[in-house]
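Support case: adenine complex. Customer-provided input:
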Amino acid sequence: MKIDIITVVPELLESPLSHSIMKRAQDKGLLTVRTFHLREWAVNSYGQVDDYQYGGGAGMVMMCEPLANAIESLQKEQPYDEIIYMTPDGSTFNQSAANELSMKENLLIICGHYKGIDQRIRDMYVTREVSIGDFVLSGGELAAAVVIDAIGRLLPGVLNDETSALFDSFQDNLLAPPVYTRPADFRGQQVPPVLLSGDPKKVEEWRFEQSLERTRQRRPDLLEGQE
Ligand code: ADE
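Agent response - structure generated as follows:
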């Protein structure tokens, strides 16, 4: 999968995407992430990419022309399956959106800053608007890193144990069960005996029950219409 990102602060994306599983995905050639500084398509020699908003009010707006030129010149290299704009007024990202996006080949992500991007760019080019939650970040970069991480780990071959993403929280609209490692007795706190039983069927049943119970208690909304 290839993901291109248009940003005014590429530095914010560097660290989250160059360690651990995201690094492995890129080293293995399963994921290619490229960042493009919007300034490359600035309208003047000052590198201007934002301007005052019509109608007045505090905060700058990212201009149409640099964004349109950036999008169109990148599109000439390859068509995109989706052009995504990171914004708090987008639809809330979740595991099912991650699953869906992980099946695409080429994505372009636009990170907003200041007051956001001119509405006409959203109308003309953007195919999906994504929020990572009901709070406002200073820009779309950290949100984009979150989305790319969630998608990238789902790509076949990225996780060592291919099956492990299948048991993540949310994969079946259930939260993940509790997990334990050695020692079996930690300061008098015991690992549930079933996990030491060596009976895979019993372990699976127990994990499913725990998932269900945890979901009932913490996120009953996930079970609505299912039970
Ligand atoms: N940009 C600023 N806040 C955001 C959010 N919550 N989700 C996505 N992009 C954003």
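Helices lie at 11-17, 20-27, 64-77, 95-101, 119-124, 141-152, 200-218.

Case will auto-close in a few days if no follow-up is received.
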